[in-house]
Amino acid sequence: QYSMLIASQMEPTYARTVYPCFDEPAMKATFNIRIIHDPSYVALSNMPAIDVSEMRDENGSVWAITTFNTSLKMSTYITAFVICDFDYVTRTERGNEIRIWARKEAVKNGYVDYALNITGPIFSFLEDLLNISYPLPKTDLVALPDFEAGAMENWGLMTFQESSLMYLPSDKFTGRKAVIAITTSHEIGHQACDVETFFFLFKWFGNLVTMNWWNDLWLNEGLASYFEYLGAAFVEPKLSLDKVFHDHVIQPILREDNEVGVRSLSASEDKIKGSSFLMSLFDNITYNKGASITWMLSNFLTEKLFIRALISYLKTFSFSNANQDDLWTHIQLVVDAQDEIQLPASVKKIMDSWTCQNGFPVLTLNLSTGTISQEQFLNKKNENSTDTYNNTWIVPISWMRNGSSQPMLWLDKSTKMFPEMQVSESEYDWILLNVNLSGYYRVNYDQLNLKRLAHVLENDPKYVLMCSNMRLVFPSNRFGYIQIESALELTKYLAREDEIFIWNMVLLNLVPEILESTLKNYEVYPLLKKYLLKRMLPIYHYYAGLIRQNLDALETDYFAQVYLEKLFATACWLGLQDCLDLSSELYAKWMNSPEYNIPSLIRRTICCYGIAMGSDKEWNFAWDMYSQTNSTKEDKDILLFALSCARESWLLYRYLQYGLSDTLFSSNCTSDIILYVMVKDIGQRIAWEFVTENW
Q1: Do the strands 87-93 and 96-102 form a parallel or antiparallel pair, or are they unpaired?
Q2: I need a surface site. Which of 5, 468, 486, 553 has the fewest CB within 10 A?
Q3: Close Cβ partners of 693 (under 8 Å, ≥ 6 residues apart)
């Protein structure tokens, strides 16, 4: 007998399809909900159940009627219900009953225990930070086997994709704990204020104060995305807040927000035409750019003033609605009441330059004159922008000179001279802008400063502040703002760099995204092989040693869990013999003992090069493992890729033939196999012949 499951998702405009209502975020109401359902299932909603009774229908069948307490005043889009036969674990935090629901076997196996352990502390952390009590008597978090939205902050009944809430023993080296902490924090953050303000667990923020309308959605999601990282760092202290935030939020959106035509963060209402356009607002601009702008705001105000303004804003608009100007007003009131932080313009004027205009600036520093200029950072430099702000932002500049932090400066026009930034002839006189990457912009240095920064790094590679700043220099090279030689100047010290976080940034910007084909990369490949490989040796050997002898040491190394695959894949791609030997060694260990698990951190690379360095024996073993019905989807995906790494033409052709089989693969897999083979050095010709023959 199959289990049934119903879970609602009302955001943004689906409540109207469930019950008659004025389905607008500003039209808040209280809700009385009653659900008639099969008695062998449990019904959940936003509020606690106050009564469960029985009724018989005209056929004599018995039904359960679950009646829920009247809700608080809230928007339609966060009403919710779930009908399931799940089990739960529970704990109480400051009078708030927290229950985490999941499939019975998942609960029994302890897969949701980690989520239960962090949910209460995140609630308490936010309550203390924002000086607001959570207004509901209970909170249910439900792990759904399949949930397209990923997670949703329904007030009192949060829903999650299983992978965002479950921590399995096999997740030990996968960074899964961090994902759960971040996602849970986001949704809890929303619970505070109907502006969907604080991602999932942070979302009581969004449920208490809601945006007036969807054009200010970033107020909900951007603020929640910002606070989710504060909450995650609180419950997982080993997570470096700055690094994880840069890595998950700032860097990805800077790579995306540089195309002509990318929308601005806040839109005017008349530009939003219909529900389908509205759905498109739930994108990286809303979440990541919103969080990045909030990060910058908190940095130039100081977190103390920012939180003080948020508390005032939340208290004023609780159970009500607000727009971004209301937030600026409350920040302005806090700024005006003190004299420590001086701003060059009103909060509204500064922040509108970031929220109402698309893209972001690149700042160019001329060291000789102390002049800084700004222009919009674009992938295609020759495109003209047509926004009303004439491509200028009001930019907060945190900076240091020769290692000493300096008072913040502001660039409020296209070009400005800063006498304090004029430097002497000494090669030890250097300047670094956007310290800690607190601003949402890139920096471009002249040759003189780049040489001096490279000199400092070579002498003292532990200038981590500067290393972070390299993350902004390399993309400038990628998009044509500086020459590759200038960018490479900054990498001379890398043999002494032991932070995988920094190495990942270097590889991300110097090494092609698709590593397989050396043919397409004939110009850069020999340079990287000659130049990069020798600098990679120390960090490679450090981690290879841990993989061979002390794998458990990596259990708490989040960045190794996330980035080691890229490091090892690059080392093998560039032909490092020890990397190829390690692949053969671990793959042979797996063949000899199929219950052995190749470390998940580098499984994809090991399987690929284990097959590449082997013969049909290694290939056939992977094929047998793929064909086993108990393989997980993740294992199958890795093997589907790895089987294309064979270096014998006939094996690749046979693989393509297997790919046509309806019984072995879905049609999606067939196209994946062709693509995987096509990008290999010997695979392009083979794949082309195969496709034309079997068209």
Answers
A1: antiparallel
A2: 553
A3: none
Residue 221: partners with Cβ closer than 8 Å, 6 or more residues away: 196, 199, 206, 282, 286, 287, 290
Residues carrying an active site annotation: 187
Token pair, residue 62, equals 């018995």
Phi, psi of 253 (to 5 degrees): -75, -30
Report the distance separating Cα 58 and Cα 447, nearest Å: 85
CA angle 604, 634, 623 (to 5 degrees): 70
For 128, other C-beta atoms within 10 Å of its C-beta total: 9
Contact by Cβ (8 Å): 258, 359: yes
- Rounded to the nearest angstrom, the gap between the alpha carbon of residue 225 and the centroid of all alpha carbons in its chain is 9
- DSSP H helices, 302-394, are 303-317, 324-336, 347-355
The structure tokens 């109907």 sit at 194
DSSP secondary structure string for all residues of 431-497: EEESGGG-SSSEEEE-HHHHHHHHHHHHH-TT-HHHHHHHHHHHHHHHTTSS-HHHHHHTTGGGGG-
- Contact present, 597 and 626 (Cβ < 8 Å): no
217-235 and 113-130 helices, crossing angle to 10°: 110
Does the annotation list 221 as a binding residue? yes
Question: What's domain 209-356's superfamily in CATH?
Answer: Neutral Protease Domain 2 (1.10.390.10)
Dist CA 620 CA 648 (whole Å): 13
Note whether 355 and 266 are within 8 A (CB).
yes
Quote the longest CA-to-CA distance of the chain: 94
C-alpha–C-alpha distance, residues 140 and 115, integer Å: 12
pLDDT at 165: 83
Q: Cα separation of 281 and 264, whole Å? A: 10
Strands 442-445 and 361-366: parallel
* DSSP-assigned letter for residue 47: S
User: Does residue 595 have a known ligand-binding role?
Assistant: no
Going from the first residue of the chain to its last (695 residues), give the mean pLDDT of each consecutive group of 10, the final group possibly shorter.
87 94 94 97 97 96 98 95 97 91 93 87 82 86 88 91 79 61 60 36 62 84 79 73 81 85 84 79 90 94 92 86 92 95 96 93 92 86 50 94 92 94 86 90 88 82 55 55 66 83 83 70 78 91 94 82 91 95 97 91 95 96 86 83 95 92 72 91 91 93
A 10 A CB-CB count for 400 gives 18
pLDDT value for 196: 30
Choose among 320, 319, 323: nearest CA to 217. 323
Whether the CA torsion 237, 229, 633, 598 is positive or negative: it is negative
Give CATH 1.10.390.10 domain extents, the chain.
209-356
| CATH code given to domain 6-190 | 3.30.2010.30
Phi then psi for 610, rounded to 5 degrees? -60, -40
Helix ranges restricted to H, 550-648: 558-573, 577-592, 603-612, 616-627, 633-642
Residue 246 counted as an annotated binding residue: no
Residues of the chain with CATH 3.30.2010.30: 6-190
Alpha carbons 90 and 465: distance in angstroms, whole number: 43
Q: Report the distance separating Cα 511 and Cα 517, nearest Å.
A: 12
CB 622 within 8 A of CB 658: no
Compute, in degrees rounded to 10, the torsion defined by CA atoms 67, 71, 77, 82.
-30
Contacts for 11 with CB less than 8 Å, ≥ 6 apart: 77, 78, 149, 152
